[in-house]
Amino acid sequence: MTPVTTFFQNLEAKCCTQCGNAMTEQAESYLNECIPCQEKQFSEYLAYAKKR
């Protein structure tokens, strides 16, 4: 059986679905976008919402 530490060390880096850069926070496995892409998307949403 593989030790947990070895298992997590051997995981491939997860990539952002928006920009394709490797994500550094593997613990945040539920994320699909890196933090800068999330912030950009949120600011674009806020700008859109203000126009309405």
Provide key terms for this protein:
52 residues; mainly alpha; 0% strand
Structural commentary:
The mean pLDDT is 85. The chain is rod-shaped and about 55 Å long. Helices cover 44% and strands 0% of the residues. It is mainly α. The chain has one domain. It is built from two helices and no strands. It has helices at 4-9, 35-51.
Topology, pairings included?
Layout: H1 4-9, H2 35-51
Q: In short, what is this structure?
A:
With 52 residues, this protein is mainly alpha-helical. The chain contains 2 helices and no strands.
Order of helices and strands: HH
What structural class results from the helix and strand content? Answer: mainly alpha
Helix content: 40-55%
**What's the N-to-C terminus distance?**
56 Å
Q: What do the pLDDT scores average to?
A: 85
Query: What fraction of residues sit in β-strands?
Result: under 5%
Number of domains: 1
- How would a crystallographer describe the biggest sheet? none
- Shape, per Cα inertia axes: rod-shaped
Beta strands, count: 0
Radius of gyration, CA atoms, in whole angstroms: 16 Å
Outline the low-pLDDT stretches: none
Total helical elements: 2
